[in-house]
Predict the 3D structure of the following.
Amino acid sequence: MRWSDVDLKAGTLLIGRSVGEGPGAEIVEKDTKTHAARRIALDPDSVDVLRTHRDRMTERAVEFGVKMLNDSYVFSRSPGGRRPWVPNEVTEAFIQLRNQMGITGIRLHDLRHFVATQLLAAGVPVRPVSGRLGHANAATTLGVYAHSLKESDREAAETLGALLRK
């Protein structure tokens, strides 16, 4: 993710690429798995966190005498954001944080499933959840997360019953 993908005023994020490590620790950018970019909305708290993060990164770049560019990476250890975190670094940081919190048995990828099931359980329609996950169609989302819809189905039955009683 580059800062050019983040619109703090509109509160949106463009997901259009992935980053990996090639031969010799070379950074490789490529399309997303579905080869499609998507723009997702950010909640106000996430926008505030990103704004604070950008300010901190800009201050750090100035301290090192480099400039933050619009295409700098959002998550980078290098001053000025010229080199992104690669997947292993993100995983290692997650494991360290998880361990500090005394949590075991949770993988970074499990957070994706957590978000999807929580959104569906909260009544968010499957189409927006599918879009946030980058699924090409809602049928994929339904196939993977159908188990989380059972409780919502119970609530739907009770709501329908209450409507019919009126």
